[in-house]
Amino acid sequence: MGKVADKLTVNLIDGKASSKLCNHFLKLLEMQENYAVRPVVFLCIGSDRYTGDALGPLVGTYLEEKSNCIIYGSLECPVHAGNLVETINLINQKFYHPIIIAIDACLGKYNEIGNMEIWEGGLHAGIAVGNRLPCVGHISIVGVVNAGGQIGYIDLQSTPLSIVIKLSKVIGEALSEGVAIVNLRLAERIPG
Fold this sequence. Notes:
Blueprint: E1 5-11, H1 17-30, E2 40-44, H2 55-66, E3 70-72, H3 84-94, E4 99-108, E5 115-120, E6 123-124, E7 135-136, E8 139-147, H4 152-157, H5 161-189
Parallel strand pairs: 2-3, 2-4, 4-8
Antiparallel strand pairs: 1-5, 5-8, 6-7
């Protein structure tokens, strides 16, 4: 997963999961160098081909509907193994020194299903299905959608949609709230 620092893990059963994620997201964002002047880009990785892999696109779609931010990866325009490298290059060409927030589904142990993890550093998408893709993200967020076995794509195919929707809603709410708070804070700094 690259350099992992300051990781927070919360579970869906925690009624305060969204606000904990939001607060940790804000803390990690404020730790990024010159965060107030850098574009924040949400890179929501996954596809709707497998239920378990739809977490990223569901979060991206939620953010498109609920907040005003830069998003790559939604149900309509997914970012997946086939176009991830191209999308990363596009983001880096289009935006100067962006802060990339990478969001993806992952497989874990049975007792970790429903966990959401956020940390400073990148993630490697596609590991569960044997893809070798570049590490991406200044801040990473994953949702544990299912327990992982030997054949990752089968676990992603057999993931109940309900868990993926619940995870995407909590993550989407946390990030949408975080973006609103950041925009408010930045607006208050601008003399007018």
